[in-house]
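Private note to self, pasted from the team thread so I don't lose it. Backbone tokens:
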């Protein structure tokens, strides 16, 4: 199964996310690991994890699925 991301008009949820949070989410959604995302963004994997925890909190998501 392939996941295709397309850019659309910003939603209210996307407006809540900081640009780096959006970038991290795009990488993870594309199937990259936290480590791959961190290396691409020049961050530690712990920072990527923190971004994704904040994203889940902002969007009221309780699962990583």
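Design output:
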């Amino acid at each position: 199964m392939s996941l295709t991301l397309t850019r659309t008009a910003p939603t209210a949820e996307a407006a809540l996310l900081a640009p780096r949070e959006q970038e991290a989410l795009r990488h993870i959604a594309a199937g990259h690991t936290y480590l791959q995302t961190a290396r691409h963004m020049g961050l530690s994997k712990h920072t990527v994890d923190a971004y994704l925890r904040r994203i889940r909190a902002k969007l009221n998501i309780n699962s990583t699925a």
